[in-house]
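Following the same procedure, sequence and fold were stored together, as reproduced here.

>
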Amino acid sequence: MNYFKINPARVLMAALVSLALVDPSRAVVVDGSLAGDGYGQPVAVQTVQTGFGDNQSELNAAYARVQGGQLFLMFTGNLEPVWNRLEVFIDSTPGGMNHVTRPASSFDRFTFDAGFEPDYLIENISGPSNFIFQFAEFDSDITTGRDTFINVFDGQEQGAVQTAPGEELGFSFGLGFDNTNTAGVTGGVDAADQAAVVAVTTGIELGIPLAAIGNPFGEIKILAMVNGAGGNFLSNQFLGGLEAPQANLASDGQGNVFATLGLIDLNDFAGDQFFTIDIPLTGDLNRDGFVGIDDLGNVLGNWNGNVSPGDMLQGDPSGDGFVGIEDMNLVLGNWNAGTPPPPAGELASAVIPEPGSVALLGVCVVAAIRRR
């Protein structure tokens, strides 16, 4: 019976790719620090000094990792507690708005770079003895599709929490903020010191359920930028970065202040003010682009075992360091998703169940577990 065989060549390739990107033995702890999280190299780095004050509001670099059904994002830098905000836009599903239509919003008529159509917005707002976290569907209706968490650090300006499920959208988020950075970019409008940028290890860290952003897989796009207290005064801190020299954009890209950001078109600035990351298909433990027998074999091969947290090749997509029913559910819940790889060797004779056969497959799995 070939159901639980693993193709060694494909497993080796997946292992090499995984090692090149992150350290899978390290589970991410959302605390506002890169230390011990195994993020690997930054996915975006700052290109210009900050116009919002050295060590006050600056974006140095962005890091990303997917583990246990969550997208972890880390933005190193600072956010001044005068109600300045770090805004993170995510383009992860078809559709979205490139030229924004959001009446009564500070983003009404704002235009993103060509090819970027965000579907979700995360706002991190830093105030005196208060920190506000907001997750919203980014569409024309600004009155629904959002959850706001006020005073998340319980009277403190920084800390680490797991929010309660939002009342509107129902998702819980990890949030860590360490505002102690004293390195990185300096104040000004000139080119940033790249060595100083990547040396910063603290800032704002997010744990975002993939289900909250449409369960994407493949390439998604992210834009992060620092905005002022009223939401209508943009700094020059973007990831991806602006071309130096560059002063604060304010409301119109020229330093003037108006009620909205509607006069800003990011296509007027060189380069793309967003970066891309690749989201692996949930349940695709061997990274071949398809959820099937090989992936289930990774789980069953280490059933009831303790492994390195988040080690996909050892069957731990949940990231808890233990291979069990939660890991199996992540595989079976996305069964047959993706594109089947071409037959090779013994895999050619394997029977790939249709989606309607998952229940029967579950019986086979239980039987296999009992034999173990």
